[in-house]
Amino acid sequence: MSLPHINKRVEMLTINLIREQPDAVVERLKVKNFDAAGIVAAVLDLDRRRRELQAENDAVQAELNNLSREIGQMMKEGRKAEAETAKSGIGTLKERQKQLSETLDGVSRTMQDELIKLPNLPHPLVAAGRSAEDNVMVRGGGTLPVLHEGAVPHWDLIKRYDIIDFDLGIKITGAGFPVYKGKGARLQRALVNFFLDEGEKAGYREIEPPIVVNEDSGFGTGQLPDKEGQMYHVGADNLYLIPTAEVPITNIYRDVILDASDLPIRNIGYTPCFRREAGSWGAHVRGLNRLHQFDKVEIVQIAHPDSSYESLEEMVTHVEGLLVKLGLPYRILRLCGGDISFTSAMTYDFEVFSAAQQRWLEVSSTSNFEAFQANRLRCRFRDKGAKQTTLCHTLNGSALALPRIVAALLENNQTPDGIRIPAVLVPYTGFELIS
């Protein structure tokens, strides 16, 4: 079963859309279980006030222009005394204009503060739902492995073969910062290089970005102010450790006007990623299942609005191909409104089956943000010969995140003699077995 053909995009959430279709905006955001009624009402009130102030400011400016012309005419005609009297009116009008401008700026900032509280509108194909249980299964592949008697989960395997050390990570930093050793470190490097090479073959240009970003970058891709509690903050410099390479790579195109002929732009990058994961406890996050620092290869596209869902399907197919080559059983889910992110219009999650844990592990999210991020980033394109610019669409996906991939590879490929390495990785690892 292939992905459904999608050619309809969501109208971007702007003040014009809220002004023209406030009820429709509120209803659509209910799919994300977000009650937007109060914010929409506040935005509309602020918008009315803003337009009233702008109209008054424009009227004062017009009066200033007329009075200036009259004074100029008086001076030309030699009516200097009359002109001097009229000049006092200019001072009064300028003071009024200053007051109006300050009030207008304050109202505009308040309205913007309200607008950024609204999440992206979900695509019409996104189903209503409360949690991951309501996600829609699209397709799957691979065969669930049958393990030998005595098979164990990856947290036992890594101790047996001394390839990842959580205790040492706690000593150096704290929980959730493992140390990879020997063949464990080599496997990490092999996966990163394999994913990068596969991305390059698919037409992605490799980027090595910074792993700390400023507030503007965090705002541009929607991590701020929505997820600041999940990000590590470098207080002295007011910088943030990245939660994903999506943030710095997408921000390459902040305040950039592209040529339509350059789209889509495909980038790929490897970075360590950092997430506080506050409040994450329990057996489901044991071992490599959830970390504070992990490695990930990310694919990012800047696309034309008319073809961004073709780009999304292309990215999903690319991620699926990686899992097929690694021999991991997988399934693809289209996220429901209750599980989709603040910034996304549509997201597909990939899960792989972890045989020793007997559960599915999320290893990738591949999303179309439509113009939501581009609007914040002011990332635009211009058609040849056109004067007007248009907002791009932005997309990204994990291709792939390493911890749970490693967990599934270790568990699914364990044998009484050791852990087999998938054939596609052997040229990168230099060994076929961890023993």
Can you offer a commentary on this structure?
With 435 residues, the chain is of the alpha+beta class. The strands form five sheets. It has an eight-stranded mixed β-sheet with strand order 1-11-12-13-16-10-9-4. A three-stranded antiparallel β-sheet has the order 5-7-6. It is 40% helix and 20% strand. The chain has 13 helices and 19 strands.
Concise description?
This protein is an alpha+beta fold. 40% of the residues lie in helices and 20% in strands. Helix 3 (37-76) packs antiparallel against helix 4 and helix 5 crosses helix 12.
Which structural class should the secondary elements be placed in? alpha+beta
Radius of gyration: 27 Å
Mean pLDDT: 93
Name the quaternary structure.
single chain
The residue fraction in helices comes out at 40-55%
- Largest sheet, described in full? 8 strands, mixed
| Order of neighbouring strands in the sheet with most strands | 1-11-12-13-16-10-9-4
Distance between the termini: 39 Å
Low-confidence stretches: none
Shape label = elongated
Number of strands: 19
- How many separate helices? 13
Strand content: 15-25%
